[in-house]
Design goal:
alpha+beta, five-stranded antiparallel beta sheet, Beta-lactamase
């Protein structure tokens, strides 16, 4: 196992200081594993005991679901000609995109410019009613606002086109072909399958600062995905640091035209900066933005830039397209609402430590 000493030391300190009870990281440089490390135990914060984190442990990766499952499935459908980015989403899932939502395009869902709010409570009636019943906050295409609701809708579009559940599609078209053996949804609606999957892996529990008695192990932390029985377009995937990094490498290979999994044309379409005024996003993917981007101060500064995504549980994936460096960090840090004061500096420090260690 390769270890970048400064990166491992940084994550050891973060766990010791209570940023997260557990963390794991993997870095791929020019197609080879440059770093893999494990930190902390699988005991909930403050409980003591637990097994040391190791290669078998998987984490709730929260919104990395948007790229690892939903966004990648959209790219596969685009490559196969089954999905048109500028078609109305209502063409594919008419019961979810009603009234003013009938004008929303698939591209706008991918770009977070459909006009949906960031999130909304999940009422009775399932995900289709959730999307149909959530009022828009802006006209489609008028602005960019990161939205879980929009990606729930995108998941419904993908299911309608493919006539299969999102978890089965992700396994068959993304996780399986890429050999991501520690990446999975846990579909609560199929109890025997959910139980079998739980027995196959070691899960790292998540505990929110605002609900310290609510320990969620092998159950998705996100409330909407949890109510939707573990499978939704915005959250629900569990994975390991190595698998997250391998997924990033698969996208890097596709963009370089050396992939049998995804065409270069489809991959390039999704990583292009969206044209919505003021957008700092591509399609499904995020781009470095702001004075202090989570990718840090050194990576992603070349002409091709970088693509990535974050997850509420302290997870992140960033890909430097010029240096061909893939950085995956997974943790079980679940902050109190609005409090990112500890995970933000850790993410930046992690990527800067990787860059310095690799000489990037």
């Amino acid at each position: 196992m390769s270890v970048l000493v400064a990166v491992a030391a940084l994550l050891d300190r973060a766990v010791a200081e209570g940023v997260a009870p557990a963390a794991a990281a993997a870095v791929i440089s020019n197609g080879r594993i440059a770093h893999e490390s494990f930190h902390g135990t699988d005991a909930p914060r403050g409980r003591g005991g637990g097994a040391p984190i190791g290669p078998r442990h998987v984490f709730d990766v929260a919104s990395l679901t948007k790229v690892m499952a939903t966004g990648s499935l959209a790219a596969k459908l685009l490559a196969g000609g089954a999905l048109e980015l500028d078609a109305p989403a209502a063409r594919y899932a008419p019961a979810a995109f009603v009234d003013e939502k009938a004008a929303i395009t698939v591209r706008q869902l991918l770009a977070h410019s459909a006009g949906f709010p960031t999130t909304a409570p999940l009422a009775r009636g399932g995900l289709q009613a959730y999307v149909a019943g959530t009022p828009l906050e802006a006209a489609p295409g008028a602005r960019t606002l990161y939205s879980d609701v929009g990606f729930v809708g995108l998941g419904l579009v993908i299911e309608a086109i493919s006539r299969a559940p999102l978890d089965a599609l992700a396994q068959g078209r993304v996780f399986g072909p890429l050999r991501l053996d520690q990446t999975l949804f846990i579909p609560e609606k199929i109890p025997f399958l959910a139980e079998r999957l739980r027995k196959m892996h070691a899960f790292v529990p998540t505990v929110r600062a605002s609900r310290p008695t609510d320990v969620r192990s092998a159950v998705v932390d996100d409330d909407v995905a949890r109510t939707a029985q573990g499978v939704a377009g915005h959250a629900g995937v569990f994975s390991s640091a190595r698998d997250v990094a391998a997924f990033g490498q698969a996208w890097l290979d596709a963009l370089a035209g050396r992939s049998a999994w995804l065409s270069q044309t489809a991959a390039a379409e999704l990583v292009r900066r969206d044209a919505t005024p003021g957008s700092t996003r591509a399609l499904a993917w995020d781009l470095p933005s702001g004075a202090e981007p989570s990718i840090g101060s050194r990576l992603g500064r070349g002409p091709k830039g970088a693509i990535g995504h974050l997850g509420f549980t302290g997870c992140s994936l960033w890909i430097d397209l010029d240096a061909e460096v893939v950085c995956a960090l997974v943790t079980n840090h679940c902050p109190a609402p609005g409090d990112l004061s500890r995970i933000r500096p850790l993410r930046r420090a992690f990527h800067d430590a990787v860059a310095e260690s690799l000489g990037s």
